[in-house]
Amino acid sequence: MNFCSNCGSSHLVFDVPEGDTRPRDICRDCGKIHYSNPRIITGCLPLWEGKMLLCKRAIEPRCGYWNVPGGFLENGETAEAGAAREVREEALAGVEIIGVHAIFSLPNFNQVYIHFLGKLKNGEFGVGEESSDARLFLESEIPWPEIAFQSSTFTLRHYFDDREKGIRQVHLGSL
Amino acid sequence: MNFCSNCGSSHLVFDVPEGDTRPRDICRDCGKIHYSNPRIITGCLPLWEGKMLLCKRAIEPRCGYWNVPGGFLENGETAEAGAAREVREEALAGVEIIGVHAIFSLPNFNQVYIHFLGKLKNGEFGVGEESSDARLFLESEIPWPEIAFQSSTFTLRHYFDDREKGIRQVHLGSL
């Protein structure tokens, strides 16, 4: 932040506001305190007849790698609606949200992933604009070294573990 | 947003960037796209010997009402560390996080609550700076009309339901 988004002043200091415990960007002219907080990446692992749908990323970062469909939660959305939207955008597919599966924090990147499990509607899907491919994988077919992010590896591994044990639970992880 | 926080220009338009699907604040001078996304409110319901710890808010909004300890997740934190910090700040208490309990979205306020269950360490607590009181409640003692937010009511009701059924699950809700 170089200028105050409220008054346009360049007199910003990074200091602890009165009554606060952490430094923030504060405008010396209008007094506005500018907060910065982690963002949510919401996603969904779509399931269909024992397989799961992954998308190959057509955009950076990790272009060309396979991923659980997901992206930044937008204003005005619930976490689950955002996850379903991402599946629609990246895999041109509808999902019925089953429930939360994982919360994975990346404190160094100020991001928190919320991953849901979903049921693919009618098993139909395509390749969205931000994807170069989309495919249903059996567990034995998952291209582990080509998974885009550790959040996705975490979600997939725990999904297979749970399925083998016949349980459903929510997994908490961080990097 | 009145001024570009990157270059200080007032030539901002609210328009859909190329390749995007939603309008954003875009600077006509430096081209910077300013994204705005929902914030996470992370919290924890501390449990101790069949009771649960609530804090009476000493700050607005909902000053004087009882609440599940919680607040905005900060940069650099995991969701669970943020929840434990909020309990420390609001109730001067340590908790051992048991697991996720509820994800409650407020799309009209661009907020997502993540509520954990936690075990109060040694049953000890106090009254933090942002609280005017803190108390362990039995289910029969919960002051339902004086609960600060619907996210907290949601978390408490589902906790009691689950406890009666002897199960633990994660609840998804929105308002």
The total of helices of chain A stands at 2
Query: What would you call the structural class of chain A?
Result: alpha+beta
Q: What characterizes the major β-sheet of chain A?
A: 8 strands, mixed
Largest interface: A-B, 42 and 42 residues
Number of strands of chain A: 11
Rounded average pLDDT of chain A: 97
Describe the model.
2 copies of one chain form a homodimer. The first copy, chain A, is an alpha+beta fold and 175 residues long. The first copy, chain A, has helices spanning 79-91, 150-165, and strands spanning 12-15, 24-27, 33-34, 39-48, 51-57, 66-67, 70-72, 95-106, 111-120, 131-137, 171-174. In chain A, strands 4, 5, 6, 7, 8, 9, 10 and 11 form an 8-stranded mixed sheet that branches. The first copy, chain A, is elongated. The two termini of chain A are 26 Å apart. Chains A and B meet through α1 and β8 of A and α1 and β8 of B.
Please supply descriptive tags for the structure shown above:
homodimer; 175 residues; alpha+beta; eight-stranded mixed sheet; three-stranded antiparallel sheet; 17% helix; elongated
Question: Can you summarize this structure?
Answer:
2 copies of one chain form a homodimer. Helix content of chain A is 17%, strand content 37%.
Question: Could you outline the blueprint of secondary structure elements for this entry?
Answer:
Two copies of one chain form a homodimer.
Chain A: E1 12-15, E2 24-27, E3 33-34, E4 39-48, E5 51-57, E6 66-67, E7 70-72, H1 79-91, E8 95-106, E9 111-120, E10 131-137, H2 150-165, E11 171-174
Parallel strand pairs in A: 4-9, 8-11
Antiparallel strand pairs in A: 1-2, 2-3, 4-5, 4-7, 5-6, 5-10, 8-9
